[in-house]
């Protein structure tokens, strides 16, 4: 993966090589951190890079940090400004992924969340597809999703991603592309790093927010696109495992995953094993919206370089 030129670390922008933490760092030893993943899409026609749902991600970061007693001083507005400056400094003209990270920076032994000091860092890297978008073959994981009363999935906690990593690697080692988690109670939760939707009899269905899911920004965007573009409301409810096998369409969604159709689950084809019509329409609407091509969804995106394009007034003619 290409390394960025500059990253934000301990209150300043520094060359990538200088942003280093100690081996004793609390966040590294105990997974005491939280993070976000934000995409920005390059639009060549507009010569502009659009950051997708930046505020929503930073609002979620503040909430994740709050759950972990990691309240840090930067406001959502400040975080947005830092992200914009970071991207500009790296001067990217391609699709990128921005990773804000808050971690306990203390160098000490002791499992706890109190009397520790959160540090904020941010970096960005170029990124293409995180999973393929032509049709995924997935399995239901033998690993269960972390439960809200053990490790809250609602917070995007660094240490919690061992749960996702176990499921993803199990799936890949068994020759599947991805995994679907069930909750401890046996109902469908989400993918390893993405939310899940089903289409059943013309109805969009997704697990409700109290099913140990990360409350995805893309999940919300998909619901809005479905309502406004297809006239489809989404039912948020608990989903049985076997509903996966009889669904008309299944897709994942997430910042990384974007909208990624699932065509096979546990060696059973989903419907005819092709990308379904509702998924296709949502993918196309999403593709346009995230690149700042759809007027109706311009509020989702923040242009990075716009001020460079402001036309300067013509210089007054120098009268001879
Ligand atoms: N669930 C998990 C576990 C994730 O890691 C992600 C990716 N952030 C998602 C869902 C999708 O969330 P979002 O659409 O906000 O990226």
Write the topology of this structure:
Blueprint: E1 6-9, E2 12-15, H1 26-30, E3 33-35, E4 38-43, E5 48-52, H2 54-67, H3 76-90, E6 96-104, E7 118-126, E8 136-144, H4 161-173, E9 178-182, E10 188-191, E11 195-200, E12 203-206, H5 217-230, E13 234-236, H6 241-246, E14 249-254, E15 258-265, E16 268-269, H7 277-290, E17 301-303, H8 306-309
Parallel strand pairs: 8-9, 8-15, 12-13
Antiparallel strand pairs: 1-2, 1-7, 3-6, 4-5, 4-6, 5-17, 6-7, 9-10, 11-12, 11-14, 14-15, 15-16
Helix pairs in contact: 2-3, 5-7
Bound molecules: 4'-deoxy-4'-aminopyridoxal-5'-phosphate (PMP).
Can you tell me about this structure?
The protein has 320 residues and is an alpha+beta fold. The protein has two domains: 6-128, D-amino Acid Aminotransferase, Chain A, domain 1; 136-295, D-amino Acid Aminotransferase, Chain A, domain 2 (Alpha-Beta Barrel), CATH 3.20.10. The protein contains eight helices and 17 strands. The strands form two sheets. Strands 8, 9, 10, 11, 12, 13, 14, 15 and 16 form a nine-stranded mixed β-sheet that branches. A hairpin with a 3-residue loop joins strand 14 (249-254) and strand 15. The N and C termini lie far apart (57 Å). The relative contact order is 0.15. The mean pLDDT is 95. The structure holds 4'-deoxy-4'-aminopyridoxal-5'-phosphate.
């Amino acid at each position: 993966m290409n390394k960025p030129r500059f990253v934000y670390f301990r209150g300043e922008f520094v060359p990538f090589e200088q942003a280093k933490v100690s081996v004793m760092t609390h966040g590294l030893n105990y997974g005491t951190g939280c993070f976000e993943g934000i995409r920005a899409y390059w639009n060549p026609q507009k010569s502009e890079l659009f950051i997708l749902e930046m505020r929503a991600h930073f609002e979620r970061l503040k909430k994740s940090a709050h759950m972990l007693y990691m309240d840090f001083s930067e406001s959502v507005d400040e975080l947005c400004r830092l992200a914009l400056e970071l991207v500009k400094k790296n001067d990217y003209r391609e699709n990128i992924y921005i990773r804000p990270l808050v971690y306990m920076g203390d160098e000490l032994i002791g499992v706890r969340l109190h009397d520790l000091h959160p540090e904020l860092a941010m970096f960005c890297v170029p990124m293409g597809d995180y999973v393929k978008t032509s049709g995924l073959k997935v399995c239901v994981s033998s690993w269960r999703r972390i439960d809200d009363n053990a490790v809250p999935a609602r917070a995007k906690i660094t240490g919690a991603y061992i749960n996702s990593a176990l499921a993803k690697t199990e799936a890949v080692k068994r020759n599947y592309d991805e995994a679907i988690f069930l909750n401890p109670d046996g109902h469908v939760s989400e993918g390893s790093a993405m939310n899940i939707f089903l289409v059943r009899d013309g109805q969009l269905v997704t697990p409700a927010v109290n099913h140990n899911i990360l409350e995805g920004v893309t999940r919300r965007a998909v619901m809005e696109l479905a309502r406004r573009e297809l006239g489809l409301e989404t039912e948020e409810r608990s989903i049985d495992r076997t509903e996966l096998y009889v669904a008309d369409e299944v897709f994942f969604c997430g910042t990384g995953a974007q909208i990624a159709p699932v065509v096979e689950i546990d060696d059973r084809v989903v419907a005819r094993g092709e990308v379904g019509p509702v998924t296709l329409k949502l993918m196309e609407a999403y593709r346009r919206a995230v690149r700042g091509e759809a007027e109706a969804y311009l509020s989702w995106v923040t242009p990075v370089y716009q001020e460079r394009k402001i036309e300067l007034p013509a210089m007054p003619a120098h009268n001879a």
